[in-house]
Every structure is written in C-alpha cells, then in structure tokens.
Fold this protein.
Amino acid sequence: MKNLNPIEIFVPGRVCLFGEHSDWAGGHRRTNSEIAPGAVIITGTNQGMYARCSRNTTKELVVRSTLTDGSSTEIYRVPMELDLLQREAAAGGFFSYAAGVAAYMLDFYGVAGIEIDNYKTTLPVKKGLSSSAAFCVLVARAFNQLFQLGLTTRAEIEAAYQGEIATPSRCGRMDQGCAYGQIPVMMNFDGDRINVQPLRPGADFFLLVADLCGKKDTVRILSDLNAAYPFAKSESDKRVHRCLGTENKRLLEQACAALEEGDAKRLGALMTEAQAIFDENLIPVCDELKSPKLHEVLADPRVAEWVTGGKGVGSQGDGCVQFICKSTDARVALSAYLKDQYGMPCFDLDIIRPSSIRKAVIPVAGLGTRMFPYTKGVPKTFLPVVTPDGIAKPVIQVVIEEALSAGVKKIALIIQPEDASRFREYFNADVPSATIAKLPQTLKKEVERLKEIGTRITYIQQTEAKGFGHAVLQAEKWVNQEPFLLMLGDHLFQSNNDRSVAAQVVGLFQDFGDKQSVVGIYEESLNRVKHYGTVAGEWISDKTMQVSTVVEKPTEDEAQTYLSVEHHGRSIWFCVNGIYALLPAIFDILRLQAASVEEGEVQLTTALDTLMQRDGLKGLVVDGKHYDTGIPSIYAETVAGFSNHSAVFAKATPCYGDCELECKKNARY
Ligand code: UTP
C-alpha cells in the first residue's frame, strides 16, 4: 500500500432543523408497524473539529487533543489490539470514542496504527451539537482515508455509531449525520433501518442559534415522550404519535422543498409551525417542554423583525433556539439583541448553496516578457501586492484566495518546470519555528493560511510556453470532465459588494443550471482594449450579456467598428476580466486547436469563440474592480489601487469549507 502524507480532516457538529424526537419514535416501528417512520433534517455547523492524521509504524492508536481554548494538549496512546481497544472504549471519557471506533475499524477492516492530532476544536461541547459524534466520524474517516478503504459516507456513519455505542455514552442515530459536512441531509428512520438523503439548498440560508442559558432535562423529556410508545394507550399518546409521525412527515416534505427552492421565508414559517404543532401535542404529556425561556424569545416582537421564523433545538426544552434570519445583517442585529437583552451567547449557522464548481485552474507558466527583466529572475506571479488589510502577499496567493472564495476546493497551478521548487517552497514548506516566534499575532494566522492553501494545490507542468490556451489544456486530465473555474495568474479582483468577483461568476453559471460557460466582463476604455479579450452581444438582463463575438486583443479601430455595446444609453466596450466558469467541452476544442497550431500560441479566446458557437456563452458585468499585474505601468497603478480599495470588501467564502481562517469567519458565500 502506498505510504500517504498526513491528511487534514474537518468534521462539523450538527443541528437538527426539523423532526427532533422522530428518530427514536420511528425506531419503535420494530415493534409497532402502525407508527409512521421518523424523519429529520439536520445540517452541519460552521464549527467543528480539526485534525491532522497520519499512519504510524508503531501499531498504536495515538490521539493528541488540544483543548478548545488552545491552552493545553493531552496525548493518548493505546496499542491497536481488539481487546485493549474495547476495554478502553468501555472505560469512558473523551478518548474512549477514538478507542471505540478504532476497535470497530480493526475488527471489520484489519487496519493498523494511526496518529490523530486534533489540533483545534471550535465546536461547543454539551450544547446538543453532537461533538462526540463528530469526533467518532473524524476517527472513522481518518482510518478510511489513511488505509484507502473506500468507505462511503454512509459506511463512515455506521463505523462512528458502532464506535460510540461501544462507550458508555448513548447517542441517537441522527448524530453522525455530521459526516455529510455542511450539507443539509434528510434522514429517515424506519425501525432499525436508516436512509440518508443529502439535500441541495437552492440559496444560502443564514441561521442563528442562541443558547437559552436555561435548564433542560433531556432524560425527563425522553422518558415522558417514550411513555407514549410503542402502543398509544390514550388520546394524548395518539397525539404524540401523530405529531412525531404523520404531521412531522408533512412538515418535512415542505421543509425539503423550501430548502431546495431557496425559500427562506417559507422555511422560517415552517419552523414556527413545527414549534406550534410540537407545543400543542407534546406539552400535555411533558411539563419540561413548556420551556418558558424558549417561548419568551420566540414570542418577542423585536426578534420577529429580523427573522422569518424559529423553533427550539435538539430535544427542545430551554436548551437552544434557532432562527432563520432575513439576511446576514439581520443576523448580526439579532445576535447583538439576544446578547444585550437576554444575555444569550449566539453562534452563526450557514447553509450554503453548494457550488457545482469544485476545481480551479490557474496558469502561471507564461514568459512574462512584458515584465522583463524582473521575470528573468522571478515569475511575475510572485510580484508583491499589499492587501487592503495591510498584508504583503505575492499575486498568486491573492488569486488563489479569490478562487477559494467562490467555493472551489482544489487548485491546479500550471507552472514552468523550473519554477516548481519556488512554488513548493512558498506554499508547501514549513515556516521555520524561529520565524514564527518572531511574527506578530496578526501574521501568525498567515502561517496557517498558507499551510491550508498548500494542501489544496496540485502542480502541473507546461514544458513549453505555447500560450494561455495550451496551459489550460495541460489540466484536462486533472479537471476530469467537471465544470471548472479558470483564472489568469496575473489579475486581481476586489468586489464592491459582499460576494467576491469569482463567486459572482460561479453564481451566474449556477443560476443557469450549469449549462453555459460564463466569463466575467467589465467596462474598459477604448485605448486599453488592445490588451484584452473583448466581447460583444445582446443584454439578457442589466448585467448579463449573451455573448455573440469574442476577439482577442482587438486593435482600437476594430473595437470601435465592431465591438462597441450599448449599455445604459452609452456606447462602450467590455473586456474579459480573467475569470471564467467553463464547461469541460473547452478541452475538446483546445485539443483540436493545439493539434492544428504548428507555431505560435494556442489561444483560449479562439477556443472560447468555438465554445460560444456550440453551447452559448454568457458575460457577467461583475460588481467589482480588476487589477492587472502583467504590464509595468498598469502594475504600478495596481499596487497603489489594490491596497487602497475602500468599497465594502467581498467577504471571502467558507472558501476552505473547513477552516477557521478569517475568510470563513466572514463567510457569506
Ligand atoms: P499573458 O497573456 O499575460 O502572457 O498570460 P505571459 O507570457 O504571462 O506574459 P507576456 O505576454 O509575455 O508579458 C496570461 C496568463 O497565462 C499564463 C500566464 O502565466 C498568465 O498567468 N500563461 C501564458 C501560461 O501559463 N502559459 C503560457 O504559455 C502563456
């Protein structure tokens, strides 16, 4: 078996959005088939557990865990022997979860030793967010990936569940749903059978979860409600069955539709309705569910201004409350209000519309002749810029961060072979600890950021600089028939709104069902169009053009005669800004083009023209500014303009999807 490098794993906690208690209720179908199956919708939290994992040769399970506040680290070590692991699991405590899962993986898959460095945990424990299940999933996934077992997420869930029930902790069957990450999933419970269905949100939803700081007795709640099962003995028992059965199913179906349609208003209203039905049918059999704090907050008219609806969380009672907020600004206001008025700590929960574009290609193998002689020594993509927050970075890092802000998970850099060590040195080599020690606190997080970025990069060599199109073609195998984001390695972007420029382009690609390629475009002055790909076409909305002509670096005359476009009553020019969301069909075209070009460059714009004629092409006038770094005079303007950009900056995305860097804290897209 191939020896693998350490891998990074992030597992979030989970929140139950709808259907609480129906999981165990549906389990009673084992004995009473009259009971309706249970169903829940859960979603992963923004917070979670982070770990670096590797195989070891000592045949031990080694777990290093750093406390949530980062204050101290504990190390746990146990030989990978079934008896020992089972005993350790039964003994209880945090590490028993790892032992329980390791025992299961050893028993079923014959795995050997691993090391798990759980270096960071941002998930609050004992708040009904399934932190123990998250840890069990993390351990199962580490074994799965390190030993290349090829287990599905569903199988990881099973391993995590079996591992956790080998410990004294008792978990529900929905807890391990966090294995699906920050994707909402619907889980169905029919006796012992579970069925999991990932959902595809049609928009972003902004939830706020607040700790009611009240009392809740989960054991009491469970025991009161369970008294109505498996056979209803009274009218009130029947109402419990109906509430957790048929009524729940009806609400769940509607909630799935609202989620997939991206309808936050409807989803909020359904939460409010779910709470009303829950109260009406379950409070009569369980006093604990009267939850005065929960109901006080839910009934507060000020709260209603910011939300479309809300309900309790988990087993309910005065534990936590969740709201669907009208916007991120509304969420900020609500969070401040709940803290001031009720002293309730809050945390954000984002449900993000998934990106169909997971990969980005960034060619940086050009000769950079216009930046000679600088480029004799250093590729131009290593030119420095200062970001608006005052950090000096090479251009390539800013370009990569823009790509990640669009939800991309993997990056291919197309490089010249002789530059390989320079890129690896920057993105993949460790920063010496003596340097880290001297860094101010604000720059220390940059070390982590670089490390994180490094794990996402694949380097692909372009052995001859045969043009931008040829560089893109080198990534064909890596892209593997998926739509992908293409970005120039020498252009930078700053959004004027809270969605990054790359995210705007990817967003339009998704809005049209991933069916047509999209290029970002911007208004350019006539005397500069000669530097750029220029487009013309018909407007299908204020910002969206159905492109009918693409010309690479037209002359001023050509542009004036053929390429001007009417927009808002003016006759102007639009150029390609260097961000493309492309269908993989572009590779077929580039391949043919490369085969027919004997000398000269393979131009992307020529291929784009063919793609446009075949499948159509949309141009999006992005709301933001772009900066070129590949021409000396324009680079000089870029350096000044880029660091001074003062509009509302795009808050970069949960780019990494699974890191806690600044960009994620500001996450919106
Ligand atoms: P440019 O058109 O700016 O070309 O490339 P260039 O070679 O970098 O610079 P000049 O024109 O000689 O001054 C646009 C992007 O495509 C990459 C470049 O690195 C840049 O990010 N590129 C270009 C390649 O990767 N390979 C090539 O053969 C050409």
Remarks:
- The pocket of uridine 5'-triphosphate is lined by residues 363-371, 414, 462, 465-468, 470-471, 488-490, 630 (CB under 6 Å).
- The chain has a mean pLDDT of 91.
